[in-house]
Design a protein that fits this description.
It is an enzyme of class 3 (hydrolase). By secondary structure, the protein is an alpha/beta fold. Helices cover about 40% and strands about 15% of the residues. It is globular.
Length: about 270
């Protein structure tokens, strides 16, 4: 065989082999080639097209909250009102979280995908260097509120000390998030008249306690009948040593809310 003919034969064989590899190789999922981040963009509800509420352990989507009231409670004059329950006929409850010790990154995804209106009452000494996590929560719709600088029991502290705790955290949160919180929760849910005076002087519109709180065994109630009612403020309790992560505890509570014929409203719309 002449050299030109041999070269032509080699080229033909190479082309045939290339065509066979392209045609015969097992197909690769394009999502697998793109990677996980791209897969999330292609399948915003998960690779199976699963809706977000199922992804987060709910059997049905959360009902949308009604239009918020035109005249929130905090428009009243005088010392800030102390509330654990908002008087409303709307079938909503309000989810609140304290301190800022838990920084479950998947909870950010849960809040975003469920469009879940939650209120985070933050303590500076507890959050520590983790403010970035709460900035991400704020960016997907969570509200950031005041829970003092150092989490002291407020009753009995002098006015100057209480004012420093409340106003100091107001300034911290303003510098971190660009807003001055309107709501304040005293540590341990305890306060005195001095607390209310200091809160008013720091620009607080309402002092928020809770009527119901989650526990490892379910829900406890501070007052009234032992069931969820429209307007209840709920405290999602802190992490237990061996308890499930925040997102799972929230999903368990949401199922209870739905079973009661309720949905979740934005507390800041009502106060």
């Amino acid at each position: 065989m002449s050299r030109p003919r041999a070269t032509a034969a080699v080229l033909a064989a190479a082309l045939l082999l290339s065509a066979c590899v392209s045609a015969c190789a097992p197909s690769v999922d394009p999502i697998e080639r793109l990677g996980r981040k791209a897969a999330d963009r292609v399948h915003p509800h998960g690779p199976s097209g699963e809706p977000p509420y199922r992804r987060w352990g709910l059997t049905e989507p959360l009902a949308p909250a009604p239009r918020p009231p035109l005249h929130p409670l905090s428009l009243r004059t005088g010392l800030p009102p102390v509330v654990d329950h908002v008087p409303t006929s709307d079938r909503v409850v309000f989810l609140t979280y304290d301190d800022g010790a838990e920084k479950d990154p998947r909870f950010v995804d849960m809040v975003r995908e469920l469009r879940l209106p939650v209120s985070m009452f933050l303590t500076d000494s507890v959050v520590g260097p983790g403010y970035g996590h709460f900035a991400r929560l704020q960016s997907v719709g969570a509200s950031v509120e005041n829970h003092t600088l150092d989490h002291p029991a407020m009753p009995g502290l002098p006015y100057a000390g209480q004012r420093a705790e409340i106003c100091g955290q107001q300034e911290k949160l303003k510098s971190r998030f660009g807003i001055r919180p309107r709501l304040f929760r005293p540590p341990y849910g305890t306060y005195d008249t001095t607390t209310l005076r200091a809160a008013e002087d720091c620009g607080v519109a309402a002092v928020v306690l809770w009527r119901a709180a989650t526990t490892p065994d379910g829900i406890t109630y501070r007052a009234g009948d032992r069931q969820l009612r429209p307007g209840d403020v709920i405290l999602v309790g802190p992490d237990e040593a061996l308890g499930p992560p925040l997102r799972e505890r929230t999903a368990r509570l949401l199922r209870r809310v739905q079973a009661s014929g309720l949905t979740v409203g934005r507390l800041e719309d009502y106060l």
